[in-house]
Amino acid sequence: MLDTSVVVDHDLIDPDSLPDESAIAAVTLAELAAGPHATSDEEERARRQDRLQWASATWDALPFDSEAARIYGRVFAATKAAGRSSRTRMADLFIASIAAANGLPLYTRNAADLVGLEQIVIIVAV
């Protein structure tokens, strides 16, 4: 599964560091949908809108379902045990839960944001 950070920087990442087949979470689409509204720069807004449309057309996003919700409890506990705040990284933790629920490794540009989750989901830094 590709984290939002990987989708955002997809064209900058060496393709050899990514899996041959990939998935994204519906949470990633939500983050990408918010992106254009988070900037006042018109060119950046258009770039972010293009990225959202590309991601929507490229992947069928995996949902945050009952299994992901169950795993989120473990993710929350592991984050707390690692001394990290779950509130500032809620979207990342939802994405990690979806990856774990689907038995997928999580490819990310922000591995430090997922410290403590190594026993729940395989984290691959790219």
The biggest sheet amounts to:
2 strands, parallel
DSSP summary, beta strand count: 2
Spans of 5+ residues with little confidence (pLDDT < 50)? none
Within the largest sheet, what's the order of strands? 1-2
- Along the chain, the helix and strand elements come as HHHHHEE
Shape: globular
- If helices are DSSP runs of H or I spanning 4 or more residues, what is the number of helices? 5
Helix content: 40-55%
Strand content: under 5%
How far is the first residue's CA from the last residue's CA?
12 Å
| Mean pLDDT across all amino acids | 96
- Secondary structure class reads mainly alpha
Rg (CA only) = 14 Å
Report on the structure:
The chain is mostly helical and 126 residues long. It is 47% helix and 5% strand. The protein starts with a helix and ends with a strand. The radius of gyration is 14 Å and the shape is globular. Strands 1-2 form a two-stranded parallel ribbon. It has five helices and two strands, in the order H-H-H-H-H-E-E. Helix 4 packs across helix 5 (90-101).
SSE topology:
Blueprint: H1 4-8, H2 26-34, H3 42-58, H4 66-81, H5 90-101, E1 106-108, E2 123-125
Helix pairs in contact: 4-5
Short structural summary:
The protein has 5 helices and 2 strands, in the order αααααββ. The chain is mainly alpha-helical and 126 residues long. A two-stranded parallel ribbon has the order 1-2.
Which tags fit this structure?
single chain, 126 residues, mainly alpha, two-stranded parallel sheet, 5 helices, 2 strands
